[in-house]
Amino acid sequence: MLRKCIKLSFVMMIVLAVAHTAAAQILDSEAYDSYTAARAGQQAVSKVKTSTPTALKVKPFSSISSGFQAISRYNPATWGFNCSLPSPLKGQFLLGPGVWFARVQGDMRRSTDTTRFRSTVVDFNDHLGLRKSGNVIWSLDALYQFRPRWAVRYTFTPFTLEGSGAPRSSFEFGGQPFDANTIINSKWQRSEHRFGIIFNLSRTRNGMTSLFADWMYIQDKISVGSTAATAQAVSWDEDKNLALVGIEFDRCLKNYKGNTLALNLKGGVAFLDDTIGYEAEAALNYMIPIRTGRFGFLKGGYRYSHLKKETDTRMFNTTLDGGFLQMGFIF
Hints:
Layout: H1 2-40, H2 62-72, E1 93-109, E2 122-123, E3 135-144, E4 150-165, E5 171-173, E6 176-178, E7 184-203, E8 207-226, E9 234-256, E10 259-271, E11 275-291, E12 294-310, E13 315-330
Antiparallel strand pairs: 1-2, 1-3, 1-13, 3-4, 4-7, 5-6, 7-8, 8-9, 9-10, 10-11, 11-12, 12-13
């Protein structure tokens, strides 16, 4: 009987030990899981469901079409629709000096006398030796916007061109003969003043159309001399008062990080004082904001100007064309 009690007690002690060990292992496992979840900021996953694969639909040439759409943003034909064009507001000024790389052509006649061996029509390049290209002409433009749709503008363009050479043919200028193959020294001085008014005929968010009317006063002085002992220096002063009317288009092409690229087109007709003339200009204008409502700009393009005066006693025709650059401020 005593042995049975001892065996039973021994078995119960083993069972209790095993149960205690199993409970301790369970508690340690739960503590580790809670610690791991707390470190990862996540909860333990009890059940995991396997996801079924889904089929993706891929459009053919999608990458190619997206590439063409990106390239189309650089197509100038699509520019300007959502573009904002800066322009002078009421009370603002525009000031911009510029340089014109002009080609020069022209001819003149001061008398109706004709000779058998000498030409009375003097060519600026062949007879006077003036350079046809490579001439640098400076100018200054100033504009004041005194009303929302009205502005006044002043332009001053002076230059002096000198030439030298030996003409292949003789000519007569102002009653003075100049022989061929003799050294001719010449100088052409011009001073052009232009004052006019501008009316904004149509003004939208991305473009503007304007009409302008200018008064032009041009002073020309030609001096011709020769190294020949029998030839004397001759000078001629020619003044003109002209009216110039025309139209001007401005359109915004692109806005980029606050900067603006715009297109400028202008054309006009000059008349009065026995003179007829034409001028045209095409340029790109790049404007950079400085402060609210104030801009700096850089403008470049091509300019053409032609004036023709021909009477029974006098003729004075000039053509200037070439690229130009202008920079300034709207303030």
